[in-house]
């Protein structure tokens, strides 16, 4: 791949790197502004100067530095502006005006993203939590009067768990608020932009059609997921089937769905043999209108809008500027999206979309040449296979990083799931049109559509039952991920423009990746640590000794929930041996670490220990004040499970200072981790 002839993709990649750097050094944004201005001035002077430079590539290096520092400056200033906006709010009880902007999946709470406003302060976005059953659900655009207190977003309470608070913050949401029925009053409704109102009405119309003509609940929820991106009611077992079979991407309305939808019309318009420039503009205008229509029908969620924008820009470049390079078009779209919202770089949907599209554009031509189809049908099948394989090359590192697994039968999944998805998308759009003119026909279309959805469910379930359907337990660190991505970029460079120096650099990168993985495993083999997890009921702890794990469990938390909490941490420690359970004793020793769990059942007088105990775990339900526990030995760390009131908590803090032990509150600080 010749990056020199593709300036937009170069700027796009450099901008991403600059954003990552700027996000970590935001406090120095003033310096980056000055450096960016200086580099820009030097670049302009060198560009317009007639002087011949000894090093011809010097101006290119200046260009690279300029884009990097522009990215650093842009995201740093963006972050600083948001911080100033958020700083105008405090965590005290106030009355607010809140407009419902987005509904999230409900669990024990109704969850909404709201645009919150207070007199004299700028508008911010907040996660509003309302306990189920306390009040009625609200609709998008409802303007609420809310009395409440803002709280900080939740942090990841257990090691290497998904940080939902950080995810929300990068979506532009900065606080959360709890409210009950008495705290909320509906002031008015309909506070939506015209296209949001259209999208809401269109989405409700499609849901009405599906509820009317679909009988089975599983197929109905799957149809809402694939056609509208609404995954709130889809069964967890079906989600797992799609994830393990490699077909999870069809559940979220994204670039794949818009591409499938618009591909038919692109093919149809290409059949119209007009060569005039006017027809090109008309064709682009019609395709953009169809994309906008599809966005409206699917509810205009942010991911669909992004995918529609990307597809629209691509079609403009491909039709009006046929000589335009696909990578340049892709880079231009990425630049526009990142300048609009820099934190898109952290969104998995953005990463997967660009990775898959770039992988297909680059690798598909090379893979398709490996086999020459003999018939027309062979050609269609080979195209599906080659596109599926090409898409996975850049997606593979992301899949391992986020999901710690890799679907073995992704080719089979692509061969069946993508064509079925294509038919159900066209069928869904057809049902909407038919409902407007001849609704009786939808009885038969509904039966056909429901059959296709049942077929898709059965196929993914079948793939899950196959041996080695998914390679589980894969783990790569951020450093390993970056090395792997860099290695793939070098491969791209070599395929497009072979150079010995790049080949040697690639070999060095592969060796660096192997060494880094080996050193990490060697380190963990000689490593010992204890993790006491943050759970709702009781105590659960893992003792890691090399590649072995001992588990201590005195909790009523369900097995599935415990496994979900423990799994990321265990994978990070490269646990390869079977996990053994510690006997239900409250006092024991692992290597050089002594552990004591006091829950009201243990008799402290029976514990004979001369040396200080390393970790003592207390359950706040049985013990409140330190004076209630007469320990006949010294303690190094006291871990309190459960919540305490402020007075008792302060009492514990004072006792920790007097007796010189480390105090850890799991309900406030999250999991307790110590090396030994």
Walk me through the structure.
By secondary structure, the protein is α/β, with parallel strands linked by helices. Helix content is 54%, strand content 16%. The protein has 20 helices and 18 strands. The chain has helices at residues 7-24, 29-48, 58-86, 164-169, 194-213, 217-228, 236-245, 255-270, 277-297, 302-320, 326-340, 348-368, 376-403, 410-437, 442-465, 478-496, 500-525, 559-572, 646-659, 666-669, and strands at residues 93-104, 109-117, 124-131, 143-151, 173-179, 184-188, 406-407, 470-471, 528-532, 539-545, 548-554, 580-581, 587-590, 593-598, 613-619, 635-641, 662-665, 672-675. A five-stranded mixed β-barrel has the order 1-2-3-5-4. A five-stranded mixed beta sheet has the order 12-11-10-9-18, covered by helices on one side. The radius of gyration is 29 Å and the shape is globular. The model has no long low-confidence stretch (mean pLDDT 81).
Quick tags:
single chain; 676 residues; alpha/beta; five-stranded mixed barrel; five-stranded mixed sheet; 18 strands; 16% strand; globular
SSE layout:
Elements lengths: L6 H18 L4 H20 L9 H29 L6 E12 L4 E9 L6 E8 L11 E9 L12 H6 L3 E7 L4 E5 L5 H20 L3 H12 L7 H10 L9 H16 L6 H21 L4 H19 L5 H15 L7 H21 L7 H28 L2 E2 L2 H28 L4 H24 L4 E2 L6 H19 L3 H26 L2 E5 L6 E7 L2 E7 L4 H14 L7 E2 L5 E4 L2 E6 L14 E7 L15 E7 L4 H14 L2 E4 H4 L2 E4 L1
Parallel strand pairs: 3-5, 11-12, 14-15, 15-16, 16-17
Antiparallel strand pairs: 1-2, 1-4, 2-3, 4-5, 4-6, 7-8, 9-10, 9-18, 10-11, 13-14
Helix pairs in contact: 1-3, 1-11, 2-3, 5-6, 6-15, 7-15, 8-9, 9-10, 10-11, 11-12, 12-13, 13-14, 13-16, 14-15, 16-17
């Amino acid at each position: 791949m010749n990056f020199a002839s593709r300036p937009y993709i170069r700027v796009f990649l450099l901008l991403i790197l600059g954003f990552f750097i700027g996000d970590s050094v935001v406090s120095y944004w003033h310096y980056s502004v000055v450096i960016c201005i200086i580099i820009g001035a030097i670049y302009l002077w060198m560009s317009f100067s007639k002087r011949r430079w000894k090093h011809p590539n010097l101006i290119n290096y200046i260009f690279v530095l300029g884009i990097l520092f522009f990215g650093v400056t842009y995201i740093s200033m963006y972050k600083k502006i948001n911080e100033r906006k958020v700083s105008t709010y405090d965590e005290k009880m106030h009355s607010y005006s809140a407009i419902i902007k987005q509904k999230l999946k409900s669990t024990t709470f109704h969850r909404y993203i709201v645009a919150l406003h207070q007199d004299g302060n700028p508008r911010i976005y907040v996660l509003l939590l309302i306990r189920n059953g306390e009040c009625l659900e609200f609709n998008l655009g409802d303007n609420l009067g809310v009395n409440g207190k803002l709280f900080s977003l939740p942090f990841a309470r257990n090691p290497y768990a998904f940080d939902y608070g950080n995810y929300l913050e990068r979506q532009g949401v900065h606080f959360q608020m709890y409210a009950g029925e008495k705290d909320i009053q509906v002031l008015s409704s309909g506070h939506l932009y015209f296209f949001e109102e259209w999208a809401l009405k269109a989405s409700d119309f499609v849901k009405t059609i599906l509820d009317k003509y679909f009988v089975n609940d599983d197929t109905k929820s799957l149809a809402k997921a694939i056609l509208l991106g609404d995954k709130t009611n889809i069964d967890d077992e079906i989600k797992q089937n799609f994830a393990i079979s490699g077909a999870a991407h069809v559940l979220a309305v994204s670039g794949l769905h818009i591409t499938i939808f618009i591909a038919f019309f692109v093919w149809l318009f290409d059949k119209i043999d007009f060569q005039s420039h006017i027809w090109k503009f008309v064709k682009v205008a019609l395709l953009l209108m169809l994309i906008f229509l599809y966005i409206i029908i699917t509810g205009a969620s942010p991911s669909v809008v992004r995918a529609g924008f990307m597809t629209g820009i691509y079609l403009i470049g491909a039709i009006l500027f046929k000589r335009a390079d696909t990578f340049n078009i892709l880079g231009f779209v990425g630049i526009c999206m990142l300048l609009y919202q820099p934190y898109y770089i952290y969104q998995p949907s953005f990463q997967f979309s660009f990775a898959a599209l770039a992988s297909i554009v680059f690798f598909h031509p090379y893979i398709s040449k490996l086999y020459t189809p003999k018939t027309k049908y062979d050609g269609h099948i080979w195209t599906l296979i080659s596109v599926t394989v090409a898409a996975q090359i850049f997606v593979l590192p992301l899949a391992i990083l986020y999901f710690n697994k890799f679907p073995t039968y992704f080719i089979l999944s692509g061969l069946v799931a993508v064509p079925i998805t294509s038919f159900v998308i066209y069928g869904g759009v057809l049902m909407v049109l038919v409902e407007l003119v001849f609704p009786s026909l939808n009885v038969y279309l509904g039966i056909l559509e429901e059959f296709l959805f049942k077929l898709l469910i059965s196929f993914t379930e079948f793939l899950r039952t196959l041996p080695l359907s998914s390679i589980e337990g894969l783990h790569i660190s951020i450093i390993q991920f970056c090395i792997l991505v860099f290695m793939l970029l070098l491969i791209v460079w070599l395929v497009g423009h072979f150079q010995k120096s790049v080949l040697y650099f690639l070999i060095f990168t592969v060796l660096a990746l192997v060494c880094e993985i080996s050193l990490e495993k060697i380190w963990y083999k000689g490593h010992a640590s204890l993790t006491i997890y943050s759970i709702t009921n009781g105590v659960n702890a893992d003792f890691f000794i090399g590649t072995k794990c001992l588990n201590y469990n005195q909790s009523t938390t369900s097995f599935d929930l415990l496994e979900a909490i423990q799994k990321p941490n265990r994978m990070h420690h490269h646990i390869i041996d079977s996990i053994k359970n510690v006997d239900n004793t409250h006092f024991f020793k692992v290597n050089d670490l002594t552990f004591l769990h006091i829950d009201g059942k243990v008799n402290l007088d029976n514990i004979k220990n001369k040396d200080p105990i390393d970790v003592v775990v207390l359950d706040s339900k049985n013990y409140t004040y330190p004076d209630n526990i007469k320990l006949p030995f010294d303690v190094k760390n006291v871990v309190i499970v459960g919540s305490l009131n402020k007075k008792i908590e302060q009492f514990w803090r004072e006792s920790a200072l007097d007796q010189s032990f480390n105090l850890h509150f799991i309900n406030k600080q999250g999991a307790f981790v110590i090396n030994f």
